[in-house]
Amino acid sequence: MNIKTPAFIIDEAQLVANLTKLADIRKQSGCKVLYAMKALPCSRVLEIAKPFVDGFAVSSLFEAQLAQEILGESGEIHLTTPALIAEELYELTTLCSHINFNSLTHYEHYSPIVRTQTSMGLRVNPKLSFLKDDRFNPCRRYSKLGVDIDTLWKSNCLESQQISGLHFHTVFSATDFTPLIQTIEKLRHYFGTRLEKLHWLNFGGGYLFHSISDCQPFIDLVIQLRRELNVAIYIEIGKGVVGNTAKMVASVIDIFESDGKTIAILDTSINHNPEVFEYQRSPEILEHDVKGTNSVILAGGTCLAGDVFGEYQFKHPLQLGDKITFNNVGAYTLVKANRFNGHNFPTIYLQHENGELKLLKSHTYNDYQQQWQ
Ligand SMILES: *Cc1c(COP(=O)(O)O)cnc(C)c1O
User: Fold this and answer.
1) What is the C-alpha to C-alpha distance for residues 67 and 55, in angstroms, rounded to an integer?
2) Distance CA 161, CA 150 (A)
3) Residue 316: pLDDT band by 50, 70, 90 thresholds?
4) Of 104, 108, 153, which Cα lies nearest the Cα of 126?
5) Using CB atoms within 10 A as the burial measure, which of 78, 127, 135, 332 is most buried?
6) Ligand 1 centre and the CA of 181: distance in Å?
7) Where exactly are the structural domains of the chain?
């Protein structure tokens, strides 16, 4: 198949491998696994994930609606968001099996109107910082995410029968379980036997299970907590499910010199992967060769001067029409993409385990026109 670039290609074998690993950990530890669909909410990805997980973790009404469409009656939907809106609450409670309040204010306002079938939890902020960059750190000072652990300790919320669980989410792209173990220690130190009154604990996401070779510390922790506290344990993983399952293939559409350096313009831009610009990251490029002697600045095709991916080395001089492949772009790319400058979204393909490519979605002028009419 001749692919149309820019192409966002989802690797089904890798996705299934990641999900199989999580299903294995689920089986060994007895934890429940949710896919945090905000990372990549493609219906096809949700369909593939469905048999491997207990449900989906969502952060809005739209995500909850899509989750429900895919899961039908056969899965759990856990909502965690600072953006709970009164007008949406009734519909959310019909869609979600679990709702985690982000603050005591929301808990006090909304818990009386949540249906009895919906399990209510509180997002607790354990105030343990594991991330140097405050832009990702839910436990930063003056955080807006979760009830401060000291405030929760002073309140009598956990005594009430209404709260069935505690939720926390404190890391991003973690590759070992030290933060988790320390967080659990702190929670047990604060709340002790009060935790036994709960039905569940949700450890959030942020762990890259697919790239952690030894998951035994996690399995041991879950088994221990299930035994000692008699609670169900949930994890809700986004990037650890889809991060390494997609690549983006772009074409070189122009090439020229600027102040003595070679610039290659691609038919993609930072608007297909906004975190490159937001966090000034250099994305991983498959064709980059550290020993290559042809240095090229790869740039996007929008009018923004800073729409640049970075300077990379290539074995051969780049030419018009050459393909450039961005690896590991499954999470937080497409879902944040926009059509700035009227540039289209990437075409989305699924690569089957036998290598065959299937077109999942191509966007047209109509989609663009619809958005702005
Ligand atoms: C973003 C988020 C997740 C998923 O995080 P990943 O880093 O993609 O695994 C899970 N829970 C909450 C509350 C989140 O905000």
Assistant:
1) 8
2) 20
3) very high
4) 153
5) 78
6) 18
7) 12-242, 244-371
User: For 331-364, what is each residue's pLDDT tens digit?
Assistant: 999 999 999 999 999 999 999 999 999 999 999 9
Q: Which of the listed residues 172, 236, 328, 332 should we mutate to test ligand 1's pocket, taking the one with most ligand atoms within 8 A of CB?
A: 236
Q: Indicate the CATH number of 244-371 among 2.40.37.10, 1.10.940.10, 3.40.1110.10, 1.10.600.10.
A: 2.40.37.10
Integer-rounded Cα Rg, in Å, for the chain is 22
* Residue to mutate (ligand 1; options 35, 37, 38; most atoms within 8 A of CB): 38
Tell me: the pLDDT tens digits for 222-232?
999 999 999 99
**Which residues' Cβ are closer than 6 Å to ligand 1?**
36, 38-39, 57, 80, 169, 172, 204-206, 236-240, 331
Nearest residue (by CA) to ligand 1, atom 7, is 206
Residue 161 tokens, joined: 């029968």
Amino acid in position 53: V
pLDDT at 140: 95
Q: Is the pTM of this model over 0.70?
A: yes
Q: Which of 63, 77, 80, 245 to mutate to test the pocket of ligand 1 (most atoms within 8 A of CB)?
A: 80
pLDDT at 194 over 80: yes
> Model confidence at 58, in pLDDT bands (50, 70, 90)?
very high
Of the CA atoms within 13 Å of residue 69, those in its CB half-sphere come to 11
Asked whether residue 161 carries a pLDDT value surpassing 90, the answer given is: no
pLDDT tens, 233-277?
999 999 999 999 999 999 999 999 999 999 999 999 999 999 999
Look up tokens 């000692």; give the residue.
228
Distance in Å, CA 334 to ligand 1 centroid: 16
C-alpha 206 – ligand 1 centre gap (Å):
6
Taking the C-alpha atoms of residue 365 and residue 89, their distance in angstroms, rounded to an integer, is: 35
When the candidates are 3.40.980.10, 3.20.20.450, 3.30.9.10, 3.20.20.10, the CATH number that belongs to 12-242 is 3.20.20.10
